[in-house]
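Protocol step 4 of 6: structure prediction from sequence.
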Amino acid sequence: MQNWYGLIAVTLFIFIVMAIATVISEYQERKLIKSGILPKPENTTDADILRLANSEHKGWAMKRYRQLHDVTVKEAKQKIEELIK
């Protein structure tokens, strides 16, 4: 029974960390949208993705590319790297 407490505690900790990371990411996304750096997901174009890829927001370029084209993380990363070259 003692082993289960440890497993439950670790699982709960991981869940809390993931929840906090999600909240922080959503906050950052809203902040970037409000400042005009990041377009809303439904308004994103390939030109926006190219602009983001050539800035310090490459991660957001990958996220928007995935949302727009429904591809995997690997495919989005490859495409963003191609755009940068």
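Step 5 (inspection) to follow. Helices lie at 2-35, 46-53, 58-69, 73-84.
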